[in-house]
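Appendix B. Extra example for self-study. Work through it before the problem class; the solution is given directly after the inputs so you can check yourself.
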Amino acid sequence: MTTLNALASISVLYVLFLFGVAFFAERASRRGRATWLRAPIVYTLSLSIYCTAWTFYGAVGSAARNGFEYLTIYLGPSLVLIGWWWVLRKLVRIGRVQRITSIADLISSRYGKSNLLGVGVTLLAVIGTTPYIALQLQSVTLSVEVFNLATPGGAEEQSTAFWVAVGLAVFTVIFGTRNLDANERHHGVVMAIAVEAIVKLTALMAVGIFVVWGIAGGVSETLTRIDASELGNWEVNGGRWAGLMFLSAAAFLCLPRMFQVMVVENDNDPQLRMAAWAFPLYLMLMSLFIVPIAVVGLDVLPAGSNPDLFVLTVPLAYGQNALALLSFLGGFSSATSMVIVAAIALSTMVSNHIVMPIWLRMNEGMASVSGDVRYVVLLSRRLSIAGVLSLGYLYYAQSGGGAALSVIGLVAFTGVAQVLPAMLGGIFWRGATRVGALAGLTVGFVVWLYTLYLPSFGAGVIMPLSLFETGPFGIGWLKPEALFGISGIDPLLHAVIWSMSLNMVAFFVASLASFPSPLERLQGAQFVNIQQGTGGTRSWSQGVAEAEDLMVMAQRILGATDAQALFLREARRQGSETHLPAPTPEFLQILERELAGSVGAATAHAMVGQIVGGMSVSVEDLMAVADETAQMMEYSATLEAQSQELSRTAAQLRAVNDKLTRLSVQKDAFLSQISHELRTPMTSIRAFSEILRDGEGITPDEQSKYSSIIHDEAIRLTRLLDDLLDLSVLENGQVSLNLVDGKLEDVLDRAAAAALAHDDKRGLEIQRDWTGEQVWLNTDTERLSQVFINLISNARKYCDAPQRVLEIRVTSGDALMIDFIDNGSGVAPEAQDVIFEKFSRVSDQKAGGAGLGLAISRQIVTRLGGEISYLSGERGAAFRVILPLNHALAAQ
Amino acid sequence: MTGPTGTEDGTVVRPNRRSAEKIPLFVERQTYRRRRLVDAARALPVLGVLLWLLPLLWAVPSEPTSASTGLIYVFSVWLGLPVIVGVLIRAMHRRSDSPDPEDEP
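Solution. Structure tokens for the complete assembly:
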């Protein structure tokens, strides 16, 4: 039998070994050779502080008592890691970017650096963790007792717990508050915990392997044995199975010690990526041998043995002292690693959210006074560690180490899980407010206290028995274990359901109903949008802060060397020649974040605030920033619209310019043409009239011939001048229309006859649409026929097909459409938009007229209320005349 | 006339292109694959919950399930899921050049 002294010396040796590991790691880290300290595997193993002594001993006990329910405690965290993409990834990034130091700091920082929330979460964490520490002390004491059955004694038990607590306090103070790093990481402690993770896994698996292969005789025999035992049937309480899975997942995220190793100590993403698959496997291995050990323990040990200690008593019963010793070390390391990290996490919270704000309040306005604050912070942390451990010890001593402690694990889980709504709401929902978080936490905390924590001491201990039977003041629906008259649920499940759901409802409703402060909104946006990178928001406006004051303060918290290095770096970045950077909002932001890494966001904010003098961001600042942005966007949108408008106008101008240029060229050509046209008849008139005047001996035949030439030429001149006059009259709108009723067919008949009267040998076949032409029109038929004559003559003159055909199509609908389509080559595309202009002629060589015909036609049709256009896309030249149709007449 | 339409195109297309940078309709095959890997990573915990809540249904048949069957089932899932997570993370990492696989939420 191993003696107590041997056990004590082994424990001391083991603790010394841990000291060595932590010391070595710290030294390596300080020398900058810390790459392997940040290895993903170290991070993964450090997460194993989830598995405390409660796991190491208690899981077997739980399996022996309640069957397979113990699995849920490990399935929940496995699911959290398997779903690492959802929550952990985001949480870890927020932790790194915002320099989060604890879960209280996360909540406080998210909700506008509210210290009230920080204090609330800290209190909840202390209340939830103290019994847990007591549980660890109890487990160590119990395990020592197993080796020391011969001498059971209250005093000795108490002293074991006491000395363990003292030893852990010393270790934690030495390695947990060694430095006040900017980023609150403890390489030594994390390394020691990683080593402990291996020790406890090895120990538990060694016992498991001994049980399966050494006692039961193999895997299949073990399975048979399990089926034959009282755990033989798969029986789980559905509600508790699902509820505990949820609860353990929630607690995994919210437990202060888990948050410490998972978020605060996290250094890079690869760490999390490995933990996502490796830690569930670790948990699986930890749970693998629990049932075999429980079953074999129940089998071989005398009835009434404490199943919580099977891990120790089974090897001892088979005389495997060495194995039992290893198992003891496993349990011991489970207990110590939990206590160390929990103490560090709690002391950080207590010091940052309770001690420092009080100290700041007491020394109001003294933030810029010189003197190292670091020792104040460190001292407060050391005292907090001592305080947390003594609380745990006192709790253990008071509770007497009874069975009450073994149920406290789940009670504590439910307590810390109350932070979950505020935490998840804070990182996923920008609408979550400080008031909402406070309301949710308060409601959840009160319900937990009332329905679970206080009743857990047993009816009649704190709460009077009558309360359970009749409710407070006889109000039946307020009975602690049957709220709202719903009874018969498992008390734990009852508390989890009510505390979590009322917590969430309060959080949500109060968030909806309240309005966040500007700082809250900034922080909310930064937390929720952490993935899209940070920056762009600032929580300080340009103030009158003196750089010297800031320097003094920073030195007191960061230490002279670090502070000077930081200020110098920022000064260089700002391009300043001096050692002091200008206190710009950006610099204040950076400085505050550095300080937050040491003393928490709320305290850092308050300290900077004392010096800068309340120059924190205001609604007006926010609105100014938002307005600026909105104005810029509006302005650029206007610019864009204007530039589009401009380019459209420019395009139109270019088109007009093109047209003008072409018209001017045409006009020049026409002037020479018309002078030629006028000159030719004039020349012959002059010549022949001179002959007639001077001529002697002119025969009457010759005389009559010359006179008729003069007459013809004069008519030609008159016609030309008539056309010009006509056009000018039409253009000036001085024309008077002679409106009569007429049939389209008659007008076309007349026009065709007139146009083809002077036809030469080049024949033109006209295809008419006789039925379509039976339309009555109320119009100036003379003018209309002038248009038709012009169109038919054009076809006669310009159609270049050998067998010339002009098709006249009539379509009547809302308006009357008359198309003149010939079978020639048509008008060239570039000429199509100018043919209706005055003096425009399709080609010079076919100079048959003055180029006024279509211009006149267009004027006439416009006067008649219709329009004329060129139809492109037909086989030849095609013109369309559209006339308004009088429906009353069309019916005749 | 082709001149003006050309310039109008230029000014009209620019804002479209800018918004397209924010929410592209189509992405490269590589990016598409990576996003589907992320979807898989998101779906895994849901699958895990379903698989581990399944034992609750075993109470329904009159013939009770033996403990060994239950344990083998729970532990097989427990082994399988982390392996799939590991494979997914590897695949994600291989597909992205940056150390961060896909920041899109």
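Self-check: Helices of chain B lie at 3-22, 29-53, 67-95. If your reasoning did not lead you there, revisit section 3.
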